[in-house]
Design goal:
about 220 residues; 11 helices; disordered N terminus; mainly alpha; about 0% strand
């Protein structure tokens, strides 16, 4: 309880936190960084408006930080952040289920129309599992896909299973990479470059999968 009170007292206003700088965020919260990362991951994956937050780089820097300190065990930090990632996407999915029908009744744009819903539903029926998992590694898309899955009325249990799987792979992978590389002097001395490389590399599977599907469809014509 004291830890939670202390963490609350450390909470800063929106203008005080460097929201786009993962390294600064980790340093700002110190020993409470895993809690801060868990909260940021939750809101980043739950809402489109907060999908700009640096989820990938936060996970990577958290891993590096955990390797350099014994303040918070990695075996506890990873499940904590995984849980937040799962909950965040479930909120996005539930929002899509609840808000989607209302939006389609009131608005009829290229997004909010029955044709789009039908296409989205067909897409998730065919590529749902891969889309949910791969979307985890792409900023903004990881908040958009759960909502679209809810709007298209994807099966709840199917989404939950792949949501959990995607969260485990994403969080464990990025935190694990940071943890393993945390002791490498080259990485520690060039942290910004390392973050950029990791974010680019981990974002590649999604566009590559889309390219693969496009090539397959082109050959079938």
């Amino acid at each position: 309880m004291n830890s939670l009170i202390t963490m609350t007292s450390l909470a800063l206003g929106p203008t005080d936190v460097p929201w786009l700088d993962a390294n600064a965020i980790i340093n700002q919260f110190g020993q409470f960084a895993p809690y801060a990362v868990a909260f940021i991951i939750l809101i980043e994956t739950a809402f489109i408006l907060t999908s700009f937050l640096p989820g990938d780089s936060l996970l990577f820097v958290l891993g590096i930080t955990l390797a350099a300190t014994s303040d918070f065990p990695v075996w506890l930090a990873i499940p904590l952040v995984i849980t937040s990632a799962i909950v965040g996407s479930q909120i996005g999915f539930a929002t899509g289920l609840a808000v989607g029908p209302v939006l389609f009744e009131r608005r009829h744009t290229w997004v909010f129309n029955p044709t789009f819903v039908a296409k989205a539903h067909g897409y998730f029926e065919k590529y749902g599992a891969r889309a949910i998992i791969l979307a985890r590694f792409v900023p903004i898309v990881r908040a958009l896909v759960p909502m679209l899955a809810g709007i298209s009325k994807m099966d709840r249990r199917t989404f939950l299973v792949y949501n959990i799987l995607g969260a485990v792979i994403w969080v464990t992978g990025l935190v694990g990479i940071g943890y393993l590389l945390g002791g490498v002097p080259l990485v520690a001395d060039h942290i910004d470059t390392a973050i950029l490389i990791v974010v680019i590399v981990t974002s590649l599977p999604f566009p590559l999968e889309m390219l693969r599907e496009w090539l397959i469809r082109k050959r079938q014509r």
